Amino acid sequence: MLARLADMGEGAMSGTNRGFNFVFLPPQNEIWRGWAERLAREVPDATVVVAEDMAQAEAAIANADGVFGTLTPGLLAKATRLRWLQAPQAAPPAGFYFPELVAHPLAATNFREIFNDHIGAHIMAFVLAFARGFDRYIPQQTRREWKKPPEDHGVVHLPDATLLIVGLGGIGAEAARLAAAFGMHVIATDLRRGAPTEGVAELHRPEALDELLPRADFVLLTVPHTPATEGFMNRARFQRMKKSAFFINIGRGMTTKLDDLVAALEAGEIAGAGLDVFEQEPLPADHKLWTMPGVLITPHMAGYGPHLNDRRYAIIRDNCRAMIEGTALRNVVDKANWF
Questions:
Q1: What are the residue numbers of the active site?
Q2: Helices 308-325 and 30-42: angle between axes, nearest 10 degrees
Q3: Strand, helix or coil for residue 55
Q4: For 99-138, what is each residue's pLDDT tens digit?
Q5: Parts of the chain belonging to CATH 3.40.50.720
C-alpha cells in the first residue's frame, strides 16, 4: 500500500489536491523511510509519500511537487506539476540527468558540501603519506624490512611544495585551507568560483590546467564526472607533470584514464598516485595499480565519517521548506553539466 505519512485529506492524490506533495521514489531503505517519517513531523505543510515500488511511484508522481530519488523518463512523462528533484547523491552516475530531465523546467538539487571535512582529511592523509614516504614504508613493513633512505632524501618539505587543486568546490576549498595550514602554496582551477577561497594563492580558469601542471608537486582532482571532465586526465597531461609530482584523485574515477596513469607511473613520468576512485569499481583484483610502487589505494570511501545521514536529511528538509515558502533551494544543479 502506498505509504502517506501526512493526512492528505479527501482526494489528496487526485488532481484537486493543491498542497505540497513530496514523494520518496523506490527502491526504499530503512534510512529513507526514517527520513520520510521525520520530514512529515518537521514540515507539517508537506504531504510526504513513500512509494515502495514503481507502481506506487506511478500513482504518486502525477501530483508530486517534489521527489527524492532517481527519476526515469517514464515517470517524468507522468508528472504534471513536478518542480523539484532531490538527487540521492552528491554526484549521481552518468545517465541520471537524461535529456528529457535536462529539458524539463524542474530544479534539481544534490548532496554536495556534506563531505567536505571528511574528504579534506582524506586528501591530507594522501599528501602527508607521500610527503613522508609512507608509500615506501608501508610495503617495507609488510616485508619486515628496516630500510632508511639518506637523511635528506624521500621527504617533501610541504612549505616548499605547490598543490594544484583541479576543482575548487567545497571539497577543494577545504583541502586548500588544510594544505595552506601546512605551509603549502596552493593554486587552483575552477569553472564557477569568482575569487580564491581561504589558503588559495592563485585561482585560474579550467583552460589554464596544462600551463599549471608543470608547477605542481601534488595534483589533486576533486571535479565531478561531467561530459567535459570524462577522461580529461590522460597521458599527455601526466607527461606535463613533474617527474617528482604525485597525483591524487578523490573526485570521480571516470575523469582519469587508468591505462594512461599506469603507463605514466611505469615510465617514471610521475612519482606516485593516491586514488580513492577508479574508472572501474571495484578495481579488478588483477589490476596493475594494486602492486605498483608509489601507489596508495582506498576503496571509494574518502567521504566516510560521522553525521552524513543527518546532513543529507537536513538538505531535504531545508529544500522542502524552501519550496513551500518560495525561497532559494540549497545545492541547485546545472542539469546540462550534471553538477
A1: 252, 281, 300
A2: 40
A3: helix
A4: 999 999 999 999 999 999 999 999 999 999 999 999 999 9
A5: 3-113+307-337, 116-297
Report the 10 Å Cβ neighbour count for 263.
15
Question: Rounded distance, CA 14 to CA 59, Å?
Answer: 10
DSSP line for 148-199? ---TTSS---GGG-EEEEE--SHHHHHHHHHHHHTT-EEEEE-SS-SS--TT
Let me know if 113 is exposed, middle or buried by CB neighbors in 10 A (0-12, 13-18, 19+): middle
Q: Reply yes or no on domain 116-297 having CATH 3.40.50.720.
A: yes
Burial of 72 from C-beta contacts in 10 A (0-12 / 13-18 / 19+): middle
pTM greater than 0.90 (yes/no) = yes
- Which CATH superfamily includes the segment(s) 3-113+307-337? NAD(P)-binding Rossmann-like Domain (3.40.50.720)
Question: Which amino acid appears at position 211 of this protein?
Answer: E
Give the pLDDT confidence of 31-82 residue by residue, as tens digits: 999 999 999 999 999 999 999 999 999 999 999 999 999 999 999 999 999 9
Q: Which three cell numbers stand for residue 282?
A: 571495484
Question: In which element (H, E) is residue 294 found?
Answer: none
CA 15/CA 20 separation, integer angstroms: 12
Cβ–Cβ < 8 Å for 252, 224: yes
